[in-house]
Design brief:
The protein is mostly helical. It is built from 10 helices and 3 strands.
């Protein structure tokens, strides 16, 4: 057997081939991160300060905002340091930690969107049983189950990835710790790892997407069959913001992993990853604020209390 030098750190080289863009990317990432944190914190405060929003739908939305803050915090601050100070070295343990938490928060978001779709399905298709079905105990259980399932997924994924041998170049052609990028840098046979990742991650993505699309198929059928135009408009208004988020998230996921050659082209993969990891968590609070009358009404009420109006 050939001896391999044990690697203690990696070098993230994402976008290094574009030196003129480093300052621009640093400023862009910093601004987007600030907007993400402020926007999602405002969503959490709006929901907590208005007792009328203490419902299952807004309970899940509050957890989604918390998740988006954590999700963005795992990636963006480190990426900003890379672009502004050219600090591209990351320790072996640091790489494993970032990969674990990135996978945890990313796949948990898929579960949350599926849970929120089921909540809307129950509210619109079974309105008389909604309060009975979506009780507080079930809501808390669904959130905890989402995190627990993803902890198991991330432990398997991270464990298999870092059981590989690394030799030669320490460079990872990405701006954060992505599973595919580190497998590409390994000198081991990665067939088993790829099969495990496909089985575990594929089942999560396909399973959650099926729950979402089946739920909304029933929702759309139920809305179309409503007798009054006012009822249809009210039902669509409560679901429209969630539908926009679903299209953004799952559309990006499927484009990222189903587009031929996307993962083999580093620049293309890096660019898509910016939208997937940073842009969507920033947009979510604006989508739910601009498309939701209850949230907008609560926000105006709080601003009036503070004397802004």
């Amino acid at each position: 057997m050939e001896n391999h030098t044990k690697i203690t750190e990696f070098i993230l080289v994402g976008f290094k081939t574009h030196p003129g863009s480093q300052l621009f990317l640093s400023v862009l990432f910093s601004v987007m991160y600030a907007v993400t944190v402020v926007g999602n914190v405002c969503m959490i405060l709006i929901i907590r300060m208005n007792s009328k929003l203490h419902t299952p739908m807004y309970f899940f939305l509050e957890n989604l905002s918390t998740l988006d803050i954590c999700y963005s915090s795992v990636i963006t601050p480190r990426a900003t340091l890379i672009f502004s100070l050219d600090r591209r070295n990351i320790s072996y343990n640091g790489y494993a930690s970032q990969m674990f938490f990135f996978s945890l928060f990313g796949t948990t978001e898929a579960f949350f969107l599926a849970v929120m779709a089921y909540d809307r399905f129950t509210a619109i298709c079974n309105p008389l049983l909604y309060q009975v079905i979506m009780n507080k105990r079930l809501c808390v259980f669904m959130v905890m189950a989402s995190y627990l399932s993803d902890c198991i997924n991330c432990t398997i994924q991270t464990g298999f990835t870092f059981s590989l041998s690394f030799c030669g170049s320490k460079e990872i052609n990405h701006f954060f710790c992505d599973v595919a990028a580190v497998m590409h840098a390994s000198c081991s046979d990665t067939l088993v790892n790829e099969l495990v990742m496909l089985a575990v991650c594929g089942s999560i993505i396909v399973g959650t997407a099926l729950v979402v699309f089946i739920s909304y198929a029933y929702i759309i059928i139920t809305i179309v069959q409503m007798p009054s135009a006012e009822s249809r408009h009210k039902a669509f208004s409560t679901c429209s913001s969630h539908m926009v988020t679903i299209c953004l998230f799952f559309g990006t996921v499927f484009f990222m992993y189903a587009q031929p050659g996307a993962t083999s082209s580093p620049d293309k993969s890096n660019t898509i990853s910016i939208f997937y990891t940073i842009v969507i968590p920033m947009l979510n609070p604006f989508i739910y604020t601009l498309r939701n009358k209850e949230v907008k009404g609560s926000l105006k009420k709080q601003l009036k209390r503070k004397g802004f109006f």
